[in-house]
Every structure is written in structure tokens, then in C-alpha cells.
UniProtKB/TrEMBL annotation:
It is a peripheral membrane protein. This is High frequency lysogenization protein HflD homolog. HAMAP family: HflD_protein (MF_00695). GO terms for cellular component: cytoplasm; plasma membrane. InterPro entries: HflD, HflD-like_sf. The keyword Cytoplasm applies. It comes from Halomonas lysinitropha. Belongs to the HflD family. NCBIfam families: PRK00218.1-2. The keyword DNA-binding does not apply. Keywords: Cell membrane, Cytoplasm, Membrane.
Length: 213
């Protein structure tokens, strides 16, 4: 049984919430890159993203990412590169910023938002029956992404090992992670995140990353 109180409460400020939501976006970007190149992903990072996508009505902000910032450690590490303190993988950055662009397109499409909401409600029922990371659930999340977001003109082209990308369940897993990235991108926007802030409020982002350890 999951405790409703987070083990470690992150600073409860708008900047902290924006930083954690943005970490979710870049965690998705990082996992897409890893999956496309190696066929493997780190399970804690993966499960955090899938659970966040399925939980469309969380009891608190912290509940979205499982209550502990380390569940988003992969994304927080990528953000360290975004603010310039260490080398960032350009492919991961491209995926991350593409997810933010795609989210903006989605925000202007009420019909697609409604369709995604309907699909996610249905997939939640599947998750209750099979388990959140069961391949039937992942396949449904991938299909939801393919039949909605991938029909937009702004599309994310994933680079990697062609034989891996064509292997069983790989397209579905990649799309499920991209959908998780969109979920966190929407969350980032809801919390007041904007592209221009990444340029003009870099100092605040650095300070928050330091607080999150």
C-alpha cells in the first residue's frame, strides 16, 4: 500500500513544481533515447512515468511522481545540463524541447484533449485489472499517442538502432514514454512553466536544482 504522505517533500514553490514537472519531460526524453539505443530502461524512472500518465486525478502534486524527487532523478540530471553545469546529450534535449512544442499544439486542440482523456479513463480500467506496467496497458498508451499526438504536424522522430525500434513492443513502449512526456509538459504549463522562463529565469532553476539535491 502506498503511503499518502510523501517520504521527502520537495520545496513547495511555483518554481519547484515547474522544475519537477520539467524533470518529468526530460526524464521521458532520456528514456526514449535509452530505449531506442539499447532496448532497456531503468525501471524506477520508467514506472514513475507510466504511473504519472495513468494518474489523471492525483491527490497532491507530489503524488504525481510518487512522492520523492529521486523518482525524477534522471530528468533532474538532464536539467543540470540544460542550465549548463554539465554536458547534456543533444538528442535528449531535442526530444525534450520537441515534447514542449507538441504539448503547445495539443493545448490548442480541445477535441484531441477530450479524446486523450476518454482513452486514459479506459486504460485506467485496464491497469487496475492487469497492473500499471503490463504490456496490454503499455500497448494501449502507445496506441493513444499514435492515434492522437502523432497525427499532428509537429512530430517527434526517434533515432536509434533500427532493429531494436522494430522489435516486439518497442514502438508501443517508445510512444507510451512520449505520452508520459506530454503529461509532464502539460503539468509544467499548468504550474506556470513557459519556454521564455527557461532562458530568463535560469538562475531560479539552478537554485531549485540545488535544493532538490
Amino acid at each position: 500500500m502506498t503511503a499518502s504522505t510523501p517520504i521527502h517533500r520537495a520545496p513547495d514553490t511555483p518554481t519547484a513544481r515547474q522544475t519537477l514537472a520539467l524533470a518529468g519531460v526530460f526524464q521521458a526524453a532520456s528514456l526514449v533515447d535509452e530505449l531506442a539505443r539499447t532496448g532497456q530502461v531503468e525501471s524506477r524512472a520508467w514506472e514513475t512515468l507510466i504511473r504519472a500518465t495513468l494518474d489523471t486525478n492525483p491527490e497532491s502534486f507530489e503524488a504525481i511522481y510518487g512522492g520523492h524527487p529521486n523518482n525524477l532523478r534522471r530528468g533532474l540530471d538532464v536539467l543540470e545540463g540544460v542550465v549548463g553545469r554539465q554536458q547534456a546529450n543533444p538528442v535528449v534535449l531535442r526530444y525534450g524541447f520537441s515534447l514542449l512544442m507538441l504539448m503547445n499544439k495539443l493545448r490548442g486542440n480541445d477535441a484531441m484533449l477530450d479524446e486523450l482523456g476518454t482513452r486514459l479513463t479506459r486504460i485506467q480500467g485496464q491497469a487496475e485489472h492487469f497492473g500499471e506496467t503490463h504490456e496490454n496497458v503499455i500497448a494501449s498508451l502507445g496506441e493513444a499517442y499514435q492515434e492522437t499526438l502523432s497525427t499532428l504536424k509537429t512530430r517527434i522522430v526517434v533515432q536509434g538502432d533500427p532493429s531494436l525500434l522494430q522489435s516486439r513492443m518497442m514502438p508501443e513502449r517508445v510512444r507510451a514514454i512520449l505520452l508520459a512526456g506530454i503529461r509532464f509538459a502539460l503539468l509544467w504549463h499548468q504550474q506556470g512553466g513557459r519556454r521564455w522562463k527557461l532562458v530568463f529565469q535560469r538562475g531560479d532553476l539552478k537554485k531549485t536544482l540545488d535544493q532538490l539535491g
